[in-house]
Amino acid sequence: MKLLTKINRSYFKYGILVFLIADVIIIAMSNYFLREEIDQQLRLEAKEIFEVLKEKGEFQSIYPTDIATPISSSENRTTIKKDTLILDLYQNELTPYREFTTTQSINEKYYRITTRQMLMEFDDIFTIFTTLISSVLLLIFIGLLLFTRRLNTSLWKTFNDNIEKIKSYSFTPPSKLELTATGINEFDDLNQVLSMMSSRLEKDYTATKEFSANAAHELQTPLAVIRNKCENLFSDSDLDEKTIKTIREIYLSTDKLSGITKALLLLAKIDHGQFNERDHVSLNQIFNYWINAFQDVIQDRNLQVSLSAADNCQLLMDKRLANLLIQNIFVNALKHSKNGEEISIYLAEDYFTIANSGEQAINQPEMIFNRFYTESQNIGSTGIGLAIVKKIADHYKIDINYSFKDFKHLFTFKLQNC
């Protein structure tokens, strides 16, 4: 949830609370002041009736609002203010009135003077004031909302621009995080912290990148020397069978170590975002290329490779990574297929599958994309090919699913940007 949305919801939530409290208070106060005003008017009317009685000696009562009644001196002569209900004969319902009763003496005669004024019913008062308060608070809320949006346009514009810069920021040179000053202390402090953090991360990124490249490069030289020495030893005719076997194991292990070094360097480059080019690549063409490239292996092992395509999917990705993805997928299928078996590849509109034969399912399928994990004892396997596949797939949001059915390992790749 955005901050502004949360603020507006808080305005609305507390606005309702304020409305309810204000509604009760205003209605109570209005009711009080209304009665005070009515009581004042009733006193004046009673005074006028008294003056008429004093002047004329009689008063023509008007029921139910103005009444003057002679009473004996022994009757109660207290002044009373109260609310009362009187039956309206025309509408046949009880109507609320405010009543003021007082007793006056004129020429030793006592009169009870009663004045009344019709009151608004509570429902009417509640409806009028609630509507009025709701309208005022609604106008205030709309005004605050418009004011907040306009204020946010100016206050938050620079902040939002900086957010976009952070989203598009990359450690890859010549990119550099340069945030615009907002003029607001808290935001400027945050900009300063982010700039310092990005500078440290850039240095760490550069150091890690240089270390990976240098380590891979420096390791290749001694590995090449070891391979050359092994090749020279193979040409020596005085070696016995045991020595030749040992040299062969050294050579193969050296070759495997060289492959691991190159693979680790490749993974580091992917992590560092060094493959950022985007082109439309055809999976059909790439699969055909690698099938032809490994044609000798396929024929020597009498493998049957079938490629069927319901749609020629064009992926938007780096061509080098696309080739590495398909190469490692296909090589993995070749390595784990028995001679004379079939490898089937199917390309659809938004996914593709590759299946190869197998005797049983993988014991730990959730581990097969981890680096150096392998369930095969094949000495030529580095255990890193599927890790490269997983890294490339994650980079382009390609979902991978493994299943085993009818003695076949099936890998399904669900594509997002095909």
TrEMBL record:
<dbReference type="InterPro" id="IPR003661">
    <property type="entry name" value="HisK_dim/P_dom"/>
</dbReference>
<dbReference type="InterPro" id="IPR036097">
    <property type="entry name" value="HisK_dim/P_sf"/>
</dbReference>
<feature type="transmembrane region" description="Helical">
    <location>
        <begin position="12"/>
        <end position="34"/>
    </location>
</feature>
<feature type="domain" description="Histidine kinase">
    <location>
        <begin position="214"/>
        <end position="418"/>
    </location>
</feature>
<keyword id="KW-1133">Transmembrane helix</keyword>
<dbReference type="GO" id="GO:0000155">
    <property type="term" value="F:phosphorelay sensor kinase activity"/>
</dbReference>
<keyword id="KW-0808">Transferase</keyword>
<dbReference type="Pfam" id="PF00512">
    <property type="entry name" value="HisKA"/>
</dbReference>
<keyword id="KW-0418">Kinase</keyword>
<protein>
    <recommendedName>
        <fullName>histidine kinase</fullName>
        <ecNumber>2.7.13.3</ecNumber>
    </recommendedName>
</protein>
<feature type="transmembrane region" description="Helical">
    <location>
        <begin position="125"/>
        <end position="147"/>
    </location>
</feature>
<dbReference type="InterPro" id="IPR050428">
    <property type="entry name" value="TCS_sensor_his_kinase"/>
</dbReference>
<dbReference type="InterPro" id="IPR003594">
    <property type="entry name" value="HATPase_dom"/>
</dbReference>
<dbReference type="InterPro" id="IPR005467">
    <property type="entry name" value="His_kinase_dom"/>
</dbReference>
<keyword id="KW-0472">Membrane</keyword>
<dbReference type="GO" id="GO:0005886">
    <property type="term" value="C:plasma membrane"/>
</dbReference>
<keyword id="KW-0597">Phosphoprotein</keyword>
<dbReference type="InterPro" id="IPR036890">
    <property type="entry name" value="HATPase_C_sf"/>
</dbReference>
<keyword id="KW-0812">Transmembrane</keyword>
<dbReference type="Pfam" id="PF02518">
    <property type="entry name" value="HATPase_c"/>
</dbReference>
